[in-house]
Amino acid sequence: MQAVLAPLRSVAGAAGRVALDLVDAPMRALQRVLGVPRIGWMFVGPNLVILGLFTFLPIVIDFYYALTAGVQLYPSQRPYAGLGNFATLFECRSYLDPSSCNKDLFWRAVYNTAEFALLQVGLMVLFALVTALVLNRRILGRGFWRGVFFYPVLLSPVVVALIWKWVLQRYGVLNAVLAAGGAPPVEWLTDSHWAFFWVVFVSIWAHMGFYTLILLAGLQAIPPDLYEAAEMDAASPWRRLTRITLPLLMPSLVVVLVLGLIRAVQVFDEVFVLTGGGPGSATTFIVQFIYMTGFAEAIRQYGLAAAASLVLAVSLLLLTLVQLRISRRSVAGPAGRDHA
Amino acid sequence: MPSLRALLTGTRGRTAPDWTDWLTYGYLVLGLLLMFGPVVWMVMSSFKTPAALNEFPPQLLPYGQAEVNVPGYDRPLPLYRVKVADGATRTLAEVRRIGLTATMVDPAHPQDEIKVDAKDRERVRELKFAWGNYVEIFGKFAFGRYLWNSVFITVVATLITLIFNAMAAFALSKYRFTGHNVVFLMVLSTLMIPPTIILVPNFLVISQLGLLNSLWGVIWPAVATPTGVFLLRQYMLTIPDELIDAARMDNASEWRIFWRIILPLSAPALAVLAIFSVMWRWNDFLWPLIVLSRSENFTLQLALNAFQGELTTQWNYLLAMTVITLLPITAVFAFLQRYIATGIASAGVK
Question: Taking burial as the number of CB atoms within 10 A of a residue's CB, which of A93, A192, A206, B77 is the most buried?
Answer without folding.
Answer: A206
